[in-house]
Design brief:
This protein is α+β, with helices and mostly antiparallel strands and 166 residues long. The protein is built from 3 helices and 9 strands; from the N terminus they run E-E-H-E-E-E-E-H-E-E-H-E. Bound molecules: flavin mononucleotide.
Length: 166
């Protein structure tokens, strides 16, 4: 059984007094398994053609597995997608563990979105549209993984680094 984790939570009390509470949790659900909405500036960064994007999945045993993933995009504020083009280990990790984190970098701006798997889509317009773009690069996706966001963090090279945005 996992040890209870202590989490520090701040909240505004009677609009003027900042109180700090400590709560405990016995599992990872307090990490944020409920869907959040991706802020507009984060959507823009993920859909910026100049961006560099990486996806981290988790292997059995907890080893993180990181890959560059140009096809990551935020199709709307509640949906992140990734093309399964060359990935094998990542697909297997996603299938088994259903969680990942995607990071975007544009110059000095960076954000991380924690995601959980919605579906692995193997046919239909989403996959067809991605493959139209990939055909120009001589590549083909076997599937599109769709995810819902569960947390968003600013990881920029600025004082906002580490701040939870959603
Ligand atoms: C610029 C760049 C973009 C890439 N984009 C993707 C991608 O969108 N999808 C993908 O499956 N692999 C992509 N790859 C390859 C992955 O980084 C990775 O090497 C490959 O998928 C194998 O992953 P695996 O170790 O999880 O099996 C890209 C690699 C580079 C260098």
């Amino acid at each position: 059984m996992p040890f209870p984790r202590i989490r520090r939570v701040s909240f505004d009390y009677m609009a003027s007094f900042k109180a700090v509470a400590f709560i405990t949790s016995k599992d990872d659900t307090c990490h944020g398994d409920t869907m959040v909405v991706i802020p507009e500036k984060v959507l823009e960064a993920f859909n910026n053609p100049k961006s560099v994007k990486v996806l981290t999945s988790v292997e059995t045993g907890g080893q993180p597995h990181v890959i560059v993933c140009g096809s990551i995009s935020a199709v709307d504020a509640e949906t992140v997608i990734v093309g399964e083009i060359l990935m094998k280990k990542t697909s297997s990790n996603l299938e088994k563990h259903r969680k990942a984190a995607v990071l975007v970098l544009v110059d000095m701006i960076s954000y991380v979105i924690h995601v959980k798997v919605k579906k692995r889509v193997t046919e239909g317009p989403m996959l067809d549209n991605m493959n139209k773009v990939l055909a120009g690069m001589g590549l083909k996706a076997n599937a599109v993984w769709t995810f819902e966001p569960t947390a968003v963090y600013d990881q920029s090279a600025s004082q906002s680094a580490g701040i939870k945005l959603a």
